[in-house]
Design brief:
The chain has 255 residues and is an alpha+beta fold. The protein has six helices and ten strands. The chain has two domains: 102 residues, 2-Layer Sandwich (Alpha-Beta Plaits); 135 residues, Pseudouridine synthase I, catalytic domain, C-terminal subdomain (Alpha-Beta Plaits). Keywords: Isomerase, tRNA processing.
């Protein structure tokens, strides 16, 4: 058996999230259907994490085990030919059996894109969060400084979260970038709670509108209460951008 690591991207618009669900079209279902056509049996994939309905990925990572002898270019070509047009294979690597797409994650980067303009762009409605009110990016940037570091992010976790254990996470970088009429919130961390990035985005949007102050972030964190933070921003603006691993696992040379 050979363990295979794939970096994939997908347009989340027409998926009911990543994870397999009964009678629903999901990313996992489509990838496993492609693998089943190659193997004539079910091959389970393991992702770095799940994404919700409507959320996109530029750098999702999965792994699976296969008895087939195929080189990396062959895997990419074969899977590309079998997958629908809203899933793309970016990269394929053969890795050690000890590599795990979920448990070996070192860092994840998410980006949340806001279209901040007076008129809605209907052609981008599935790929951005539309906010017509002028957002003060300087205030949003100031608020980002309070989010960096290691904190208990209970206030930024969905009330529906079923996570076991504490909700302490480390954010290495949080910033807001101006790109034309868009504002991109970039968040890099060791791990994320359910809806954490979307709640952060919703809170920063309220700060950008002047409904909250940048320094309000600190008591929100300290309060450990979901009701203290802003609304959960819509899924369309969220992208799983990049997943980082210990390179010892992924730069293996095979004959």
């Amino acid at each position: 058996m050979q363990r295979v690591k794939c970096t994939i991207r997908y347009d989340g618009t027409n998926f009911y999230g990543f994870q397999v669900q009964p009678n629903k079209r999901t990313v996992q279902l489509e990838v496993e259907n492609a693998l089943q056509k190659m193997h004539n049996e079910l091959i389970r994939i393991i992702p770095s994490g799940r994404t919700d309905t409507g959320v996109h990925a530029v750098g999702q990572v999965i792994h699976f085990d296969s008895p087939l002898t195929i080189d990396e270019k062959g895997w990419k070509k074969a899977l590309t030919s079998l997958l629908p047009s809203d899933i793309q294979i970016v990269d394929v690597k053969k890795v050690e059996d000890s590599f795990h797409a979920r448990y070996d994650v070192q860092q994840k980067e998410y980006r949340y894109r806001i279209h901040n303009f007076s008129e809605r762009d209907i052609f981008r409605r599935n790929y951005v969060c539309y906010v017509p009110e002028l957002l003060h990016i300087d205030k949003m940037e100031e608020a980002c400084t309070y989010l960096k570091g290691t904190h208990d992010f209970t206030s930024f976790s969905s009330a529906k979260s079923t996570v076991k254990g504490d909700k302490i996470r480390t954010l290495y970088d949080v910033r807001c970038l101006k790109e034309g009429n868009d504002i991109v919130i970039r968040v890099v961390g060791s791990g994320f709670l359910y809806n954490m990035v979307r709640i952060i985005a919703g809170t920063l949007i309220e700060i950008g509108k002047g409904k909250r102050l940048p320094e309000d972030i600190q008591p929100i964190i300290e309060g450990k209460d979901r009701s203290l933070a802003g609304k959960t921003a819509p899924p369309q603006g969220l992208y799983l951008w990049h997943v980082s691993y210990n390179e010892d696992f992924t730069n293996i040379k095979y004959k």
